[in-house]
Specification:
The chain is mainly α. It has one domain (about 1-100). Helices cover about 45% and strands about 10% of the residues. The chain is built from 5 helices and 3 strands, in the order E-H-H-E-H-H-E-H. The longest helix is centred in the N-terminal third of the chain and has 14 residues, at about 25-40. The relative contact order is 0.18. InterPro entries: DUF4325. This is DUF4325 domain-containing protein.
């Protein structure tokens, strides 16, 4: 199991969506910590308790995972969002971003 505590392993203050908005961007978190942990295999626990987040940051950090090759089934099985207190609402938002990020497959007849 790999454990990522965002407040300790990344930053107590999160930034914008993209790297060009600063070192604490969602893109930096996703690409530098979360994706490498998921690619190693096994379970990944992300503790979100501590920092404050914008919905845009959460969407960028977690909502784009399927675009990077992870399925919703794989993420449901291996990615655990740990949240204490009111952060449980943030965890619900993250789960929603992950589930809504299913790629749209168009069918041609």
């Amino acid at each position: 199991m790999i454990r990522i505590d965002i407040g300790k392993d990344f930053s107590q203050v999160t930034g914008g969506r993209r790297r060009d908005s600063g070192a604490h961007s969602a893109e930096a978190f996703r690409d530098d910590l979360l994706v490498p942990a998921l690619r190693r295999g096994g379970r990944v626990v992300v503790d979100i308790t501590g920092p404050s987040y914008s919905m845009a940051w959460l969407e960028e950090a977690f909502g784009a995972l399927q675009d990077l090759g992870f399925t919703s089934e794989d993420l449901s099985d291996r990615l655990e969002i740990e949240a204490k207190g009111d952060y449980r609402y943030t965890a619900e938002a993250i789960r929603g971003y992950i589930l809504r990020s299913d790629p749209v497959v168009s069918s041609t007849e």
